[in-house]
Amino acid sequence: MASVKKFEYSVRDAQGKVQKGSIEATSEAAVANRLREMKLAPISISHVKTSGLQSEIKIPGLSDRISLKDIAIMSRQLATMISSGLSLLRALTILAEQTQNQALSKVVGEVRADIEGGRSLSAALGRHPKVFPPLMVNMVRAGEVGGFLDNVLDSVAKNFESEVKLRGKIKSAMTYPVVVFIIAILAVVGMLLFIVPTFEAMFASLGGELPFLTQVLVTMSNGLKVGALPLVVLIVLGIYLWNANKRKRGFRQRVEPLYLKAPVFGGLIQKVALARFTRNLGAMLRAGVPILQSLDIVGEASGNIVVENATRAVRDSVRTGNSLARPLASHPVFPPMAVQMMAVGEDTGALDEMLDKIADFYDQEVESTTEALTSLIEPLMIAVLGGIIGFMVIGLYMPIFSVFDLVK
Fold this sequence. Notes:
This protein has 16 helices and three strands. The chain is mainly alpha-helical. Helix 2 (about 70-85) packs across helix 3 and helix 14 runs antiparallel to helix 15. About 70% of the residues lie in helices and about 5% in strands. It is flat and about 95 Å long. It has helices at about 30-35, 70-85, 90-100, 100-115, 120-125, 135-145, 150-205, 210-245, 250-260, 265-285, 290-300, 305-320, 325-330, 335-350, 350-395, 405; strands at about 5-10, 20-25, 40-45.
């Protein structure tokens, strides 16, 4: 894959004036083609070599990260410019220049270079599978074939914007309990490592027997001193193994079904997966993607292996001539209401609209569920944090009540 480089150029405009500037492209030929499209006559084009001091500082995992929100914004801007009459190459040039995410700007520049080389937009996007989801690539391909690329890009933008909004609701609901939980852990570890040993030394110098709660704290403090390093190593190793195996199918088959059986969050996870499934399927069917191909893609994009397995079974059933709703009814992960609404959509020929209504319904369900969980978790976390800190304070200060007797 050709890398994007920086070039300096001098050109002559329509009035005969000489202008200079810089631009990023994959080759001098690409720069010349782009300048000619801008009605400029190239005079000279030279590659700019950047030294180590001039190169950008990149933080692995942060500076090169392209989020779904970035893709949603890009899709919306691209759809707006194409529907306004701009050519695809001109729209991609503007996107590459104005996108704040440098990693995405580089990828857009590579996509534009591929299109200049004769590839279609879907083929150029497909060369970056880690950036552009298969859902977007296939919908763009269908739009190119059908001649309604602007409408498809608008649908892609709406779909990704809804997904970003859904993720935002979940993150906002989980931020408070996660922060409180981390604060509680840090407070407990700090007290056990730094405060309890000080009190232990003071109590030992005075003599006497420590209360039971204080003995528990001293035992925990001594255990943490010995096991702190192995515990950190285990946590880091666990995170590494999780990241290494979380996308493997065998691991997902064992773990992800447990998500749906979780006592409090299982229902929320199911609703999120159903909202994602119905929204993506409706968008792809509306874009003209064949239903079998759509089922392949939306199953993987649902985010849960249970929904993915059910979608595969439904795809095999549809391939033999059955309807979509009938095989869905045999999978408990799909509620009867959703199945019946899909059946009505098939009968009336408006399946994509019905899928959008189902997605909207589950979006509202996710929002109400997260609000209910937030209102329930906040007081529980405060009570738990207060109980932990209170237990430790009482355990530390109980011996002080007998200090004066020990001094006498």
